[in-house]
């Protein structure tokens, strides 16, 4: 019907828009269109934020996997040198003794 129930919108910025619209004597149809556009933009921004969050989470997972692989490679190198005991390597690298032993080649 082109009417917007202004009482549903309590956010100060939205109320400011209503005030500007009233001053400019925008028609109810134009006002409804503006709020439709605002709603679409809000949904768009929400989707963008969700994608950013997912990408960040994926990046963190990849970084953790890379760090784990590098740590395990360092353990293998230390084991191959034979200068430290498995216990010393486990303590130094922050791994369990079982994990260090499982990395022996």
Structure description:
The protein is mostly helical. The protein has one domain. The protein has 4 helices and no strands. It has helices spanning 12-24, 28-81, 86-93, 97-102. Helix 2 (28-81) runs antiparallel to helix 3. It is rod-shaped. The N and C termini lie far apart (75 Å). The model has no long low-confidence stretch (mean pLDDT 87).
Explain the layout of strands and helices.
Elements: H1 12-24, H2 28-81, H3 86-93, H4 97-102
Helix pairs in contact: 2-3
Keywords, separated by commas or semicolons:
105 residues, mainly alpha
- Give the helix proportion (percent range): over 70%
State the secondary-structure class: mainly alpha
In total, how many domains does the architecture comprise? 1
How many distinct helices?
4
Radius of gyration, whole Å? 30 Å
What ranges have pLDDT less than 50 throughout 5 or more consecutive residues? none
Could you give a short account of the major beta sheet? Answer: none
Average pLDDT, all residues: 87
Quick one: how many beta strands?
Answer: 0
Question: First CA to last CA: what distance?
Answer: 75 Å
């Amino acid at each position: 019907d082109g009417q917007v129930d202004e009482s549903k919108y309590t956010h100060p910025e939205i109320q400011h828009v209503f005030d500007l619209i009233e001053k400019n004597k925008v028609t109810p149809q134009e006002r409804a269109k503006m709020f439709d556009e605002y709603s679409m933009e809000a949904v768009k921004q929400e989707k963008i934020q969700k994608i950013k969050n997912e990408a960040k989470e994926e990046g963190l997972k990849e970084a953790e996997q890379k760090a784990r692989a590098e740590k395990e490679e360092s353990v293998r190198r230390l084991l191959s040198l034979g200068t430290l005991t498995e216990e010393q390597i486990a303590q130094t690298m922050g791994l369990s003794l079982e994990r260090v032993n499982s990395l022996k080649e």
